[in-house]
Each structure stands twice: as C-alpha cells, then as structure tokens.
Amino acid sequence: MTITDQQGRAVAYLLHEIRPDWGVASLVSLIDKHRDVPSLGALLIAATTKAMERTCQTPAPIFHPGPHWPAAARAHLPKPEPCPDHVGESAHSCRCCIADTKAGIRPPGMIGKHHTPTSEDDEAPANAGASLVEGDQA
C-alpha cells in the first residue's frame, strides 16, 4: 500500500500530538520517504509504539524492522540496509558496531557506518581487556 499525502500528514500530526518534540514537517518528510508500507493500520501501530518509547529520540526507527510492527506486516517490510563493516548485521542495529563503541574503538555516531580509524591511537590496544593474573607483575 502507498500512503497518500493526506494520510501521511494525518499520521504526522497524530505523532506530533504524542511526541511534541518530533516536528510535523520532519515527520511528513520521513513518511514521504517511506510511502510504501504494508497498511495504514500497521504504520499507525508501529509509529505510535515508537512514539510512546521515551528512549526513542527521533522518529527514524519507526521504519526499521522490529517488534513494534504487527507480526503480519513484518514479512512485507523491506530488508534493512546491511552494515558495511560487519557481514550479516543490519546497519541500524549492528551489534558489532555497538560493541566497538562500548570498547571505545568506534565513535558513537558511526554505528552501521563504515569506520576506518585515523591512527593507531583510535584502536584499542590488543591487550586492552587483559588483566593481571595473580602472581604476575605489572
């Protein structure tokens, strides 16, 4: 199903009522970029579910596959973009990139994006996770 302009605006205004920090114009633009959805009802369920999540800072994750979409609609969603650095991982939720970020070897804004450290200082030392074994000396 293709969302019409009127339906897209209606969804945008509804989401703005739930999350005033999400601007109507940016919501309309986002919905315009993702016009092909399984159904208007599925979009409303996914969008309002994400809008109710306080940890969801922007509306972009609405269109990522996940449990916020009704089960019947998930099979009809487009495949997520792959992570360019990690085979088999989705760019928007790449577990390897998230682990790299937690380890301090990838900037937080580079999850799901190609990252080449500029110097060896950007890489974690090979023994970064190693600890002294009892009896060893530093």
**How confident is the prediction overall: mean pLDDT?**
85
Count of alpha and pi helical runs:
5
Uncertain residue ranges:
none
Number of strands: 0
The proportion of residues forming helix, as a percent range, comes to 25-40%
Strand content: under 5%
Helix vs. strand class: mainly alpha
Q: CA-to-CA gap between the ends?
A: 64 Å
Shape: elongated
Would you list the SSEs in sequence order as H and E? Answer: HHHHH
Question: What gyration radius follows from the Cα positions, in whole Å?
Answer: 20 Å
Biggest sheet descriptor = none
Describe this structure in words.
With 138 residues, the chain is mainly alpha-helical. Helix content is 36%, strand content 0%. The N and C termini lie far apart (64 Å). The radius of gyration is 20 Å and the shape is elongated. The longest helix has 14 residues. The relative contact order is 0.09. Helix 1 crosses helix 2 and helix 1 runs parallel beside helix 3. It contains 5 helices and no strands. The model has no long low-confidence stretch (mean pLDDT 85).
